[in-house]
């Protein structure tokens, strides 16, 4: 069960090699979390992540999980919940894709959409139902500021995150009053392996900063978290710019 400040004793990470997810797990283990499930495709990186968290004092399990295989989600994730209550699910898997390549290759674009949206809808609904059956828990979903408005530079990725963001907001409304807390996290540019090949954007942040914001959001039972917080104001302005003006911006 969570403590009085909303921090979990048990954590299920969907996307077990995500740098943001692992930074969050480290932070929560330093506070209260004692059991962690890392769900992802079997790989040396997943095993290494599990070993690292074990070294911090947590009991860590790895779970084979593929976002692109929704048919397996109910069985795979059901086995985790059958082991005992899960206080927090962190949905952290996703792919950035390559906009220039994906525009020329519809199948590659579809893979981005299926990973970031379809797979997340499937896993999110499975976990939401399990948390509701428990009567408690948090579902934290990593969205992106890219969900706020389509940009020429990344509209394939942004559209998939926009779908995920809207889905998560609606799921939060559906679960309101059930004891399940749903939180959308909207980071800006995060310095990770996934973004290493890209030019750094203004207000860039780190996995550790996102983890700190997630912890604060859990304590406050926030529904939406922006990282950094200044992006809330920036995106409010950009979202309301006339399309013709927005199209001319170097974004």
TrEMBL record:
Keyword match Hydrolase: no
Pfam families: adh_short
Keywords assigned: Oxidoreductase
The UniProt record lists the keyword Endoplasmic reticulum: no
SUPFAM superfamilies: NAD(P)-binding Rossmann-fold domains (SSF51735)
Highest taxon above the source species: Bacteria
Assigned protein family: Belongs to the short-chain dehydrogenases/reductases (SDR) family.
Name of the molecule in the record: Decaprenylphospho-beta-D-erythro-pentofuranosid-2 -ulose 2-reductase
């Amino acid at each position: 069960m969570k403590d009085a400040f909303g921090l979990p004793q048990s954590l299920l990470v969907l996307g077990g090699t995500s740098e943001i997810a692992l930074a969050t797990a480290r932070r929560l283990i330093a506070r209260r979390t004692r059991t962690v499930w890392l769900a992802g495709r079997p790989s040396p990186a997943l095993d290494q992540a599990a070993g690292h968290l074990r070294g911090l004092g947590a009991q860590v399990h790895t779970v084979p999980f593929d976002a692109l295989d929704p048919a397996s989600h109910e069985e795979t994730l059901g086995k985790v919940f059958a082991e005992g209550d899960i206080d927090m699910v962190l949905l952290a898997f996703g792919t950035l894709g390559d906009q220039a390549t994906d525009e020329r290759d519809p199948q590659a674009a579809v893979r981005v959409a299926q990973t970031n949206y379809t797979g997340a809808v499937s896993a999110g609904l499975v976990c939401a139902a399990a948390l509701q059956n428990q009567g408690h828990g948090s579902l934290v979903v990593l969205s992106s500021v890219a969900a706020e408005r389509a940009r020429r530079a990344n509209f394939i990725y942004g559209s998939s995150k926009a779908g995920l963001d809207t889905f998560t907001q609606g799921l939060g409304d559906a679960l309101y009053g059930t004891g399940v807390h749903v939180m959308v996290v909207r980071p800006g540019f995060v310095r990770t392996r996934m973004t290493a090949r890209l030019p750094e954007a203004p207000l860039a942040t780190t996995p550790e900063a996102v983890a700190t914001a997630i912890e604060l959001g859990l304590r406050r039972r926030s529904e939406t978290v922006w990282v950094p917080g200044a992006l809330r104001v920036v995106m409010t302005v950009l979202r309301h710019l006339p399309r013709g003006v927005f199209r001319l911006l170097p974004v």
